[in-house]
Amino acid sequence: MTGVPYEDRAGPLPLVVVPGMLCDASLWRDVDFPEGHDVHHTPLRRADIGALAEDVLATVPGPFVLVGLSLGAIVGFEALRRAPERIAGLCVMATNAGAPRPEQYAAWRAMDELIAAGRFTDVVEETLPDMFPDRCPTPEAARRYRGMAHAVGATAARAQLAAQATRTDATGVLRTARCPTVVLAGARDTLCPPAFHQAIAESVPGAGLTLLPDAGHLLPWQRPEAVTAALREVVTAATHTTPAAAAP
């Protein structure tokens, strides 16, 4: 892909960073974002994927690099569908581009019912194992996850569960993408296994896939150096590529 370097037109590309369910900006605290690029963290507080994508697109004017984990990446796929000319680069991780499965709808409904009944802590404990390699967190990692999830809170969690149910299969959108794309997967992610990421990388023309040994779902915690390297890679590529509309 060729074109006028972004920095020659408008300064360094900003990064819009979107977390996963029950995660906030603290998820990324160990990641070294590319120097000189503004970083904007967009929380997930609305009950519809489309509305969340609009929040992402409203975060900054003009083109940007989208960085998303899990539900955050799914929101990024919808932003790409709505405004491909705005997405100068994609870095997605620990995610799934497929439509929800019946058992997922049932699990989300059950978690929402627990929260509505005042049992948000039970939902945090239910989701905790899937965040870590082989579902086995260390005590310190479990404490950190609990603290982050409770900071997100029950109200946002219910909105995120509702948003999950509005997901659609993003594979077709990814096939039209024409921005530099890096996909990261944890080899021991039981929630979003490597096969999900292989499918994403195969869908996006020219995408790169990195499989991280001994990593689970929360890659910015578990492999911050790999996430840092991926961000530098995609920002460099995006800086030297003119953002373009998706292919027809």
UniProtKB/TrEMBL annotation:
Residues 32-229 form the AB hydrolase-1 domain. InterPro entries: AB_hydrolase, AB_hydrolase_1, AB_hydrolase_fold. GO terms for molecular function: catalytic activity. It comes from the Bacteria. Pfam families: Abhydrolase_6. SUPFAM superfamilies: alpha/beta-Hydrolases (SSF53474). This is Pimeloyl-ACP methyl ester carboxylesterase.
